[in-house]
Design goal:
single chain, alpha+beta, Alpha-Beta Plaits, 2 domains, 4-stranded mixed beta sheet, two-stranded antiparallel ribbon, 9 helices, about 15% strand
């Protein structure tokens, strides 16, 4: 069993897992401000990894037909429809909004030049309705609880710092499912084994970027060395703040958070809960060492009490 629990910043998860002279840790930076909801990432992920179809159900959640991540959905594009400001909601949408004019300043513009996009309120005050779109994925946590609880070694840390499931070793115990603080990993109903994003481990070995990032037409999904991505993301947030988008913030980029920072992090335009993300995720196995110490202490006390009772009875 691989243990990755801890809270110290600056942890190298690949080195902690025994990889020596390994390449830099890689990951995803998803800039949701330039996501157009095309779902090219979902399709590319399914095609490359042979992920089964998960249905084309009408969920009633805008254009979202997959609802969330699962064993058969390793990339999930969320569509969140909002009215801004929220204090002045109306029954009908604002039909006087020129969506095509807004698109001129949107995702067709390079991320470095786009201060405002269709996913942000318009500067002229007519942007009370907006879409927030974001492509969610496994976070490849620095401190991954799924690794801690896997009894077979099916889950392992790669030399790139990512977390991968070896489906041929998985015994379907399901321990990893409740261990994930994001609810990412899931079991397939037909075979019971656990499945999730591998960050295209096979492609990384050949020097290729993951299929989803390769297919993204707007560079909303950006792949590369994690340190470089974090620096790039911080510059993007500063650019958006200067452009008046004060709600822009990073999610999962802080190495001091409850999971030691994510290998896949996001730039959001609203609170994490709006996107279906936990506001303060914590590695669920954080308290396991302390719990086992308490168990050992209680067992030692019980054994000492039993021994004292036995010796006392013999003396009589």
């Amino acid at each position: 069993m691989t243990t990755t629990s801890g809270t110290e910043p600056g942890v190298d998860p690949a080195a902690e897992s025994g990889h020596r002279d390994h390449p830099p840790r890689v990951g995803f930076f998803t800039d949701t401000t330039v996501c157009i909801g095309c779902k090219a990432c979902e399709v590319a992920c399914k095609e490359w990894n042979a992920v089964p179809d998960d249905g084309l159900d009408l969920t009633g959640m805008s254009y979202d037909n997959t609802v969330g991540l699962g064993a058969n959905t390793w990339r999930h594009v969320a569509f969140i429809e909002q009215r801004k400001p929220l204090a002045a909601q109306e029954v009908d949408l604002h039909h006087d909004t020129d969506v095509l004019a807004m698109a001129e300043h949107g995702s067709a513009t390079a991320p470095t030049e786009a201060g405002m996009t269709p996913t942000a309120p318009a500067a002229d005050g007519h942007g009370e309705f907006r879409w927030l779109m974001a492509s969610d994925v496994c976070k490849h946590c620095t401190h991954a609880a799924c690794l801690d609880v896997c009894p077979t070694g099916s889950l392992f840390r790669t030399e790139f710092g990512t977390v991968v499931v070896q489906e041929d070793i998985c015994n379907g115990c399901g321990y990893c499912i409740p261990a994930c603080p994001y609810g990412v990993i899931d079991q397939r109903k037909d075979d019971g084994r656990a499945w999730k994003c591998t960050l295209c481990y096979d492609r990384l070995g050949d020097g290729l970027e993951p299929a989803c990032a390769k297919a993204c037409p707007t560079d909303s999904i950006q792949f590369g060395p994690l340190d470089e991505l974090r620096e790039r993301a911080q510059r993007r947030v500063e650019q958006l703040h200067e452009a008046g988008v004060g709600d822009a913030r990073l999610y999962g980029a802080d190495p001091d958070d409850g999971v030691g920072g994510d290998g896949a992090f996001f730039l959001l335009l609203d609170e994490p809960e709006v996107y279906g993300l936990p506001p303060d995720p914590v590695v669920t196995t954080r308290d396991l060492p302390r719990m086992w110490r308490h168990v050992a202490s209680a067992a030692a006390t019980l054994a000492a009490g039993a021994a004292a009772a036995f010796l006392g009875a013999r003396r009589r």
